[in-house]
Amino acid sequence: MGTLRLSDIAGRLGLTLQGEDAEVIGVNTLENASPDEISFLANPRYTDQLATTKACAVIVSEEHAGHVRRALVSQNPYQDFGRVLELFARPQGSFSGISPLAFIHPEAQLDNDVTVYPFAYIGPRSRIGSNTSIFPGVYIGEGCRIGQHSILYPNVVLMAGTHIGDRCILHSGCVLGADGFGFARTPQGIQKIPQVGRVSVENDVEIGANSAIDRAVLDATHIHAGTKIDNLVQIGHNVQIGQNCFIVSQVGISGSTHVGANCTFAGQVGIAGHLHIGDNVTIGPKSGVAKNIPSDVVVGGIPTVDQRTYMRTLALMPQFPDLFKRISKLEKELEKIQKGSKEDKD
Amino acid sequence: MGTLRLSDIAGRLGLTLQGEDAEVIGVNTLENASPDEISFLANPRYTDQLATTKACAVIVSEEHAGHVRRALVSQNPYQDFGRVLELFARPQGSFSGISPLAFIHPEAQLDNDVTVYPFAYIGPRSRIGSNTSIFPGVYIGEGCRIGQHSILYPNVVLMAGTHIGDRCILHSGCVLGADGFGFARTPQGIQKIPQVGRVSVENDVEIGANSAIDRAVLDATHIHAGTKIDNLVQIGHNVQIGQNCFIVSQVGISGSTHVGANCTFAGQVGIAGHLHIGDNVTIGPKSGVAKNIPSDVVVGGIPTVDQRTYMRTLALMPQFPDLFKRISKLEKELEKIQKGSKEDKD
Amino acid sequence: MGTLRLSDIAGRLGLTLQGEDAEVIGVNTLENASPDEISFLANPRYTDQLATTKACAVIVSEEHAGHVRRALVSQNPYQDFGRVLELFARPQGSFSGISPLAFIHPEAQLDNDVTVYPFAYIGPRSRIGSNTSIFPGVYIGEGCRIGQHSILYPNVVLMAGTHIGDRCILHSGCVLGADGFGFARTPQGIQKIPQVGRVSVENDVEIGANSAIDRAVLDATHIHAGTKIDNLVQIGHNVQIGQNCFIVSQVGISGSTHVGANCTFAGQVGIAGHLHIGDNVTIGPKSGVAKNIPSDVVVGGIPTVDQRTYMRTLALMPQFPDLFKRISKLEKELEKIQKGSKEDKD
């Protein structure tokens, strides 16, 4: 942090510096970068801006290295932009240690170098791994287990028995382990089916602000390693999500549905319960999934169909009013012909 | 909790035990149950698993009682599964009493056996009924009333004047009583219409994690007894929801809409404002409701139509590209005939 | 509030009082008003209720002034209803001063007459303008700036560097400044793109309960003055929203999309990323926006088209099953004719 020399950045990331060495204090867009900031070109749309940027240096692919004063030559400028950002990123909070204003149950167990902010609550028999940070207003219920180097941002809630892996990031206000939506309509009225399972989240998972992942009826709702979940996502009880999925904002996945690995669900997708979604499945925005989806497909629509079929159907939509006119015209013409042919015969 | 004898469970629930008595420590699926757990068969799909389950005993209907080592014979295995779960369910927290780390206004009134966790805030002139639990981070504004045996999980917010009945469950992060979305565009800019009403929730209501129910402009937004609301649901100002409804996750109901009793709204449904929805109405997932709906119907689609019409329309969707081809062909054929018939006459 | 004289209300708002002066204690609907409350007629649907209301006085346009015992004659009764409500509206909480149960970092700076409730957390180098209220459970991260006369309701979260203007209202549980959803799939797995920007909110903005506005990758996600955002709305990283927009509940706006001024997005709309939406754009409920939208249009549908085209298409939907029948019939008739004409020729 603070300032970094370009040669140092190049060395750390394995990039080639073309041009004189210099010091930079941060990262910015080509358009807004000042002469002490580094920028990047990842999208060809912005190539023109290489000529006008004030950036001290630009992360570019080899072909563009000649067009800037100083280049950090990269085989994947977007990815290396991310890695440079990491050098400059500051943590959300500089607090360390255990605040005396937090509530930590005597039967909770904290490993080394755990940070606990004021007004966090850690319940009995919960265990927090080393170097994990617990921000204000976080609630960790009874018997939870959290790994190392994880971050729980303000007002995150983990209900009893929740497991969180290492290097997870839980954004503010997400709730893990609330009761699943399980009820039976009976002659005596609605009966709640008690939810006695839990939520289990593996390593390297990120969960967005105000998302909700319900505990299982029995056993566990399970999020596998590396999966990234956006804000305001709903995940029902007993759902299983495979490794390295992207679940974009406002998606809802109903109870007991199983999702494979490496899937991408775009915003506001809804998935019915008790379904199986394969690996490498991409679902377009706002789609509604009503049945199982095999692996390696791209689907869209309500209900989902093959993405190309869906796009073709969408393209036809504005022609519908015209279609009805064409059919009415056909009917009239046909009638005319039928009349005429009848007259001919008479 | 702990262990229970099968004969004891049978006695409490009015079931018949077939087979030797034994002790069980919990409930699990047929597939995962260990020899000291009880299981159940509610879905015929899983009948095969009766042969292989390791469960100590299975809750089954009479016809399957002969296929397991020990049977708890039930007329409604799913419902009785729920009742057995209740015997084993543990509360989220074992804390009791009033934490000295909570803030309780001197003018608040707490009845007997109220539990208040650390960092809860209870405002002046609010009253909490006996045996109700208030978890950490809960905010109870001024002049609220909460009944008996209710649970407010972490970070629930009740703004001023909110009423909650008996035996309600409010899941983490739900917000009751935020201002309705009321504004007037005027020549002088946007003017806020102050929202001075409140939220009123009757007995036996459950509200999901991070859901929002807005206070009324005047009077009250009202949720009637027994209704169950899932996570991330939005309920606008002055909405009325009748008894024993199920409102599934991510549904949005706009201001001043009235909903009858025993309705079920599936996930991600949206309902416009100022509408009347009758009793016993079922709305399919992702539907958009733009006008009133009478009682006793099942609807779906955007905008909603009778569910059968909707399903028929959906089934036709993939045939649209073909449809256009058929019409173009018809037009060409007709033209040919018209030309031919003209030539005939010439 | 207490009581107000009608003549006093008329004087403050520039209305004409017709009828005897009297005292009122609140505002209510025509139907529910008691004899010490004031009511209003803004919607012609309710004109009949003028004859039966028990209200002490009614805010009406001139034409209806003769039909009530006491009239407050207004050129815009709905707007003046809002202004009268303002006279009677009470703040959510009567607390004032800085609670000793709050955590305020020694390097935070609070201007005059700031209210801080118990269990609020204010981080280092943050500055709060005068007359701003911070409710319980609010988290204000490092280096935030909040203007004057703003209200942060319970459990609002502002991550590091967030800026909030004057007279803003942030409803409970909204989260500003969580990380945007930025990842790169690489051969080595998923790489997080650090999000180092912030959220900037101008004056007179209102943000609903449990909404989420993500921080920018670089620079700022920006909400311009006067814009009102409802509950459970998702706003992605680097989004810009112009002045005086209405963003209704459960809308999702993906990253880097720019929205002009005076737009209205109805409930559950979804907007893809990197788009430009003009000024004065209205988007109908549940719409999905997949490309740029010019200014001054009304659109609807998935994907959005001109609203009239959309409504016409929707109206045709229920006729689709019939349409298929008509086409099949046409095909058969045509075939008959073709056969017949062939026979004629033979």
Structural class of chain A: alpha/beta
Number of helices of chain A: 4
Domain unit count of chain A = 3
Strand adjacency order, main sheet of chain A: 10-13-16-19-24-27-30-33-36-38-39
Fraction of residues in β-strands of chain A: 25-35%
CATH class of the largest domain in chain A: Mainly Beta
Label the overall shape of chain A: flat
Largest interface: A-C, 67 and 66 residues
The count of β-strands of chain A is: 39
Mean pLDDT over the residues of chain A: 94
Main sheet attributes: strand count, strand direction, barrel closure of chain A: 11 strands, mixed
Summarize the entry for a quick read.
The structure is a homotrimer of 346-residue chains. Chain A has four helices and 39 strands.
How would you explain this protein's 3D organization?
3 copies of one chain form a homotrimer. By secondary structure, chain A is α/β, with parallel strands linked by helices. In chain A, 16% of the residues lie in helices and 28% in strands. In chain A, the strands form 6 sheets. Chain A has an 11-stranded mixed sheet, covered by helices on one side. Chain A has a 10-stranded parallel sheet with strand order 8-11-14-17-20-25-28-31-34-37, with no helix packed on it. In chain A, a hairpin with a 2-residue loop joins strand 21 (183-186) and strand 22 (189-192). At the A-C interface, strand 4, helix 2 and helix 4 of A face strand 21, strand 22, helix 3 and helix 4 of C.
